[in-house]
Amino acid sequence: MPAPGQLRPVPRRSTAELIADQLRSAIMYGSLAPGDQLGESELAGQLGVSRGPLREAMQRLVQEGLLRSERHRGLFVRELTPADVRDVYVARLAVERTACELIMRGNRGEAVARLTPAVERLATAAASRDRNAMSDADQAFHQTLVSCAGNSRLERMAQTLLVETRMCLTVMQDVYPEPEELLDEHRRILDAIVDGAEEELLRLIEAHMVDTVERINGGGGESVPEA
Fold first, then answer.
1. Angle, nearest 10°, between helix axes 108-128 and 131-147?
2. pLDDT digits (tens, 9 = 90+) for 121-131
């Protein structure tokens, strides 16, 4: 292992990885909407890439569950059913609960330092009442939260789940919480980390996921099961 401060090779990202990032972003923001078919030649032209790395990138997204393959028809952006939405939040709860446990047993100071500006960004977005800005800031907070756990596998799982979350919210903006409510939820999560209140933190994370599922299901759907 290199000594601290010693220069080391910078990891290079493949063209397929960069393409996959662009496709994820397009799916997240609705440029590629649920049910859309991905035309290989059209996408290759738009991205200015050859079909080889494009196919590799699309297969990655199939494996992640963001695209689905239909025999003799091609690839399509997945459409999320209410059951899919529930599954996304059950999985997010498992990932984020574990991340919170690791944070509380690790470097809480670093987590506070990184999450404080994330909450400030959310406050700015809430003040603007811009739904897209709020969604971006909400996503960034949760991505940072998982990153603070220091577990790369949790981060990879969270990345796909957060793209699917954004797909849910893009389709169902009418159930998105009011700006003040969203900001208050995230401030309380940060406060629990600051106070070292692990039990309260885990309760808040679970409530955040359960409340979202209930909103999407119209208040009468299935709830997220307790761990």
1. 180
2. 999 999 998 88
Lowest mean pLDDT among 62-76, 103-117, 166-180: 166-180
CA distance 135 to 169: 8
Matching residue, tokens 């940072």: 144
Q: Residues near 199 by Cβ (< 8 Å), separated by ≥ 6? A: none
Is pLDDT above 90 for 120?
yes
Q: For the chain, first and last CA: distance in Å?
A: 38
Closest residue by Cα to residue 146 from 93, 95, 207: 95
The token pair at 10 is 């910078």
CA dihedral 6, 143, 133, 20 (to 10 degrees): 80
Give the pLDDT confidence of 56-81 residue by residue, as tens digits: 999 999 998 899 999 889 999 998 88
d(CA 225, CA 29): 29
In DSSP notation, 40-79 reads HHHHHHHHT--HHHHHHHHHHHHHHTSEEEETTTEEEEPP
